[in-house]
Structures are given as C-alpha cells and as structure tokens.
Amino acid sequence: MKKLVLLAVLAALSACSQKAEESKDSAAAPAETAAPVAAANPGTAPGSYDVKMADGTAASTVINADGTYVDTDAKGNTVKKGKFAHKDGKDCFDPDGDEAEACWGLSPVAADGSFTATAPDGMTVTVTPRKS
Questions:
Q1: DSSP per-residue codes, 9-40
Q2: What domains lie within the chain, and their CATH numbers?
Q3: Cβ-based burial of 42 (10 A; exposed 0-12, middle 13-18, buried ≥19)
Q4: In sequence order, which residues have a C-beta less than 8 Å from that of residue 67 and are 6 or more positions away?
Q5: What's the rounded Cα separation, in Å, for the pair 62 and 112?
Q6: CA neighbours within 13 Å on the CB side: how many for 11?
Q7: What region, left, alpha or beta, does residue 120 occupy, with left being phi > 0 and alpha being psi -120 to 50 degrees?
Q8: Could you give the CA distance from residue 109 to residue 99 in angstroms, rounded to a whole number?
Q9: Do residues 8 and 15 touch, judged by C-beta distance below 8 A?
Q10: 7-47: per-residue pLDDT in tens?
C-alpha cells in the first residue's frame, strides 16, 4: 500500500513538471512488476502544453504563474488569452472580452504526464506537457 501511495505521489509530481532525482537507495531495491497507477489530476500547473484536438488539429497553451493563459494555434498565432484558475477539480479559462468562462474536466494523469480535458460542450482534447 505504501508503494502505491508513493507511486501516485511521484506521478503527481511529474505532472506538475517537477523532476525527481533517483536516490542511490532505490537503485539497490528490487524492482516490482506492477501496473502503472494513474495519478489523480491536481490541476494544470503553470507551464507550456501541447494540445491535440479530436480531429488531430494541434495547438498550445501556456499557463503563467500569475494566473493568466495564452492559447495559440499551430502557426503560433494567439487565439485566446485571459485568466486561468483551478476550481472544483476543473481547469477554468476566462477569456478576455465578453466570452464566458469555461471549466474543463480533467482525466487522471498518465505516466508520461499527459491527460485529457473535456469542455462543457463535451469536446475532449489531449494535453501533453512540453519538454524543456
């Protein structure tokens, strides 16, 4: 049980774009063959993300530490920008202007840090943290 909790914590940390260092002690421990555990999604951390729509269209989102975001299309053109917040287990984007805030439901985080996000209208996208 303790190892499952540890795996979940490590997966959550990797989802927040934090790098973990392996300790020398863990290298000496015998490896277990267990299925990967999907970590609960704590909300999207500040950083850069690639977004893939269901039709294959690519875009990107940058979430800034000051609570703002910028969405760009595949050509790098700004599509939307505004305020970002994590509310009630969802990522909420409030675009500048008159457009209403949209809160996206989040799937558990996969081992590679990716997850799916579902808009209020049911549209689902795959979100992958950019490697620096």
A1: HHHHHHHTTPPPPPPHHHHHSPP---PPPPBP
A2: 46-132 (2.40.128.540)
A3: middle
A4: 83, 84, 85
A5: 18
A6: 21
A7: alpha
A8: 29
A9: no
A10: 333 333 333 333 333 344 444 444 555 555 556 677 889 99
- Per DSSP, the residues of 70-110 read EEEETTS-EEEEEEEEEETTEEEEEESSSPPPEEEEEPPBP
* Distance between CA atoms of residues 86 and 93, nearest Å: 9
Phi, psi of 7 (to 5 degrees): -60, -40
Q: Say if CB 107 and CB 33 are below 8 A apart.
A: no
CB atoms within 10 A of CB 61: 24
Alpha-carbon span 5 to 7, nearest angstrom: 5
